[in-house]
Design goal:
single chain, alpha+beta, 6-stranded antiparallel β-sheet, 3-stranded antiparallel β-sheet, 10 helices, 19% strand
């Protein structure tokens, strides 16, 4: 019945669930693909280890963005839960496969996470461990669908707190139980990751008030402010209701959305100083817009002239775009300043992160290197330091009360 790596295929749990094979495991439980002999459907069987402290007092509500709980009980002295089987990819893997997402796609995925969390909160539950590995993405013809898994254990006021430090709210790291405000923070960290393609900074002090536009100039100002508010250090400063957040993200996720850039009355100038790591990139979205307009308008200027009008007038109205631009040197600059420099010369910066002995937020490598001649609009990759590697790299951690770690899609 029990093999060296868990339940053997063919084991029947609870006189109903026929084990097919193991799908995942962690410190508290094992997850199996099983067949429900009563209905014939495939299900996810989560079997707790001996003494595992998950015992639900409330069940998650039925919602299209929440994995549905079908049954629970005890078998051979071990608690088990049965969920709908979801044929999907966890968001962490999804990002690795698909690479950086455009802003509308990132917002559509985050809007579904917000909707699932809002339904939980309405039912009096919290998630408490919002992170990419607890979000499954299902490919569908109408677009990717999101389902939150690992729902409910943190809602038991007498149970242990299960949290992943890299995504946990400051108050949870300080010892408080997760609340809806902690879920709002987790959503903000997740949204930052979706918009930038970067993992959250390893240092807790750098994970509050995050501004994704510092790393991705395509993020509109309103969305940038929303992420900063969701990741506020004080729970009282975060949005109290995630339903409205989901609706706002849905609006940003529309392919036809055209967020405006407020110009104000001041002259726009590039900063010449060296802003502190994490400071907000204020001018890059506008500069990017102006560069894009120049790239679009200049090549067609001659076509728009009335017949017989000298082409030289078009050059004066819209200066010709140079055939190539020289890549500037931005290594050792803060990422916000480096992005501004690249956008200003007409290049499209993309960022990736790496552990480094250099300070957090500094560019440690650029590809192609400085001095390379490129066509305007070419993409250039900036490698940005997130500081030295942590002493314990595993981001899955059961924070208190008892042994065990949780990994993957099981807890």
């Amino acid at each position: 019945m029990v093999g060296e790596t868990g339940l053997r295929p063919g084991t029947v749990v609870g006189d109903r669930y026929l084990v097919r094979h193991k799908a995942g495991e962690g410190g508290l439980a094992e997850v199996y693909l099983a067949e429900d002999l009563a209905s014939g459907r495939q299900v996810a069987l989560k079997l707790g280890r001996q003494g595992a402290p998950f015992q639900r007092t409330l069940s998650p509500p039925a919602h299209p963005n929440l994995a549905q709980l079908l049954d629970s009980g005890r078998w051979a002295g071990r608690p088990y839960e049965v969920f709908e089987w979801v044929e999907g990819t966890d968001l962490d893997t999804y990002l690795q496969v698909h690479g950086p997402l455009d802003v509308p796609t990132a917002c559509r995925l985050a809007a579904q996470v917000a909707a699932g969390l809002a339904a939980l909160h309405e039912a009096g539950l919290v998630h408490g461990d919002v992170k990419p590995r607890n979000v499954l993405v299902i490919s569908r013809a109408e677009g990717p669908n999101v389902k939150l898994i690992d729902v409910g254990p943190n809602s038991d006021p007498g149970g242990p707190v299960l949290a992943t430090p890299l995504y946990a709210a400051p108050e949870v790291l300080a010892g408080s139980r997760p609340t809806p405000a902690a879920d709002a923070y987790g959503l903000g960290i997740l949204l930052f990751e979706l918009l930038t393609g970067l993992r959250p900074p390893p240092e807790p002090e750098h994970r509050t008030g995050l501004r994704p536009a510092d790393w991705n100039p395509a993020v509109p100002p309103g969305l940038d402010r929303l992420v900063a508010r969701l990741t506020a250090s004080d729970p009282a400063d975060r949005p109290p209701k995630l339903q409205g957040v989901g609706e706002l993200l849905g609006a940003y996720g529309s392919p036809n959305a055209t967020p405006t850039v407020p110009l104000g009355s001041a002259t726009v100038r590039l900063r010449r100083g060296r802003p502190a790591p994490g400071s907000r990139l204020k001018t890059a979205p506008l500069v990017a817009l102006l560069v894009a307009l120049a790239l679009l308008v200049a090549p067609r200027a001659a076509e728009l002239l009335p017949a017989g009008e000298p082409a030289g007038q078009a050059v004066r109205a819209a200066p010709a775009v140079p055939e190539t631009v020289r890549v500037p040197a931005v290594v050792n600059l803060p990422v916000g300043q480096a992005v501004e420099v690249m956008v200003a010369v007409g290049l499209r910066p993309a960022t990736r992160q790496a552990y480094s002995s250099q300070g957090f937020g500094l560019v440690v490598w650029q590809d192609p290197p400085a001095g390379t001649e490129l066509a305007p609009g070419t993409s250039i990759t900036l490698t940005v330091s997130i500081g030295p590697p942590p002493v314990q790299a595993d981001d899955n951690h059961r924070r208190d009360r008892g042994p065990g770690k949780k990994r993957g899609r099981d807890d």
